[in-house]
Amino acid sequence: MGDGTGTGPRFRPADEQRLDAFVDAAFAFAVSLLIIAGGEPLRSFDDLVHALLRIPSFLAGFALIVLFWLAHRAWSSLGPKRDSRATLLSLAIVFAVLVFVFPLRLLTETALHFMSGGRLPGGGLITSFSQLGWTYAIYGFGFSILSVLYVLLFRQGRTGLAADDPRLTAANEWARVWTLAAVTGVASGAAALSPLLPAAPWLPGFTYWIMPVGIWAFAFMDRRRMRRLRAG
Predict the structure, then answer these.
(1) C-beta neighbour count of 185 within 10 angstroms
(2) Is the pLDDT of residue 93 over 90?
(3) How far apart, in Å, are the Cα atoms of 14 and each of 11, 29, 99, 217?
């Protein structure tokens, strides 16, 4: 396994492997919860069809959980020291993800039921604007908490890195992206609890488009800065 710099394999102490293995297993369990949370024993062919119709919502939730897992994997590839702070932050991320699964499943099923015109399961899970607002708020603030934990984790990953180490640049870029994600989650939660929700129930979900737009803006500014440095 590489050290994140492309310089070849790096010996990984048992403590590193143990922490990473635990986090990987916890994310796998979170995916299991995503299925079990909406699962029921199959008693007929109709039950099977109904379960298969849940695949799109499961896929949407699965993709987001994988996003968080890949972020922890990226942190691990930086070769950070597994000190008590890194362990505590990793365990906090695991706990937050396991809690995050429940509003995630509720929102993905409800959203896909609405977008499919009622063809996919999810009807009746949320029955009022008040419930919708609080579900979006719980999801958004939970997303922000997870994002802040990743900001702290990547900042921890910078410890001991030299100024010219490419891993320092990578850690800073990851911390910046997760800062943007934390702001986005708060903005979505605030929109969900605002009086605008009945008139614009799509607004809390649409707010998450801040992330790809912000990431593109960061990349654009980085390219301009690099061009100025090369020109100077």
Answers:
(1) 25
(2) yes
(3) 10, 22, 28, 40
